[in-house]
Automatic annotation (TrEMBL):
This is Response regulator receiver protein. CDD domains: REC. Keywords: Phosphoprotein. Pfam families: Response_reg. The keyword Phosphoprotein applies. Gene3D superfamilies: 3.40.50.2300. One of its GO terms (biological process) is phosphorelay signal transduction system. It comes from the Archaea. Residues 2-117 form the Response regulatory domain.
Length: 127
């Protein structure tokens, strides 16, 4: 299994990659922009995309819309510090697989993220 992480905060991106790989045995590629993520998705295959919402040039919802318009059906987790009902509604309307808010204890946060990844993988594997 391999996931693609997108976050414009380099420290949070590295922290996410480390937690997933070391503590949850989930291989990941990490990029700091939606543009770079699009390039990766066009040439590589991923089991899950995990994206921040608040990024320059293209936010997480615009990125989700873009990959869906390109017929990329990879499950998508919006992993964000933004706490707005409008964002959640837009995410759901555009086919997000899960929404996780970045707050609280890091171990609990990455445990929740890992659980969501595995649940998504298992649900797609049963099709």
């Amino acid at each position: 299994m391999r996931v693609l992480l997108i976050d414009d905060d380099p420290l949070f991106l590295e922290l996410s990659k480390t937690f997933l790989e070391v503590f949850h045995d989930i291989a990941s590629d990490a990029v700091d922009s939606a543009g770079e993520a699009l390039q990766k998705l066009e040439k590589d295959s991923y089991d899950v995309v995990i994206s921040d919402y608040d990024m320059p040039f293209m936010n997480g919802i615009a990125f989700l819309k873009t990959i869906r318009n390109k017929n990329i059906k990879t499950p998508f987790i919006l992993f964000t510090g933004a706490d707005k009902d409008k964002i959640i509604c837009q995410a759901m309307e555009n086919g997000v697989s899960s929404y996780i808010q970045k707050n609280g204890d890091l171990r609990a946060l990455y445990s929740e993220l890992s659980t969501q990844i595995w649940q998504i993988i298992n649900s797609y594997a049963s099709y």
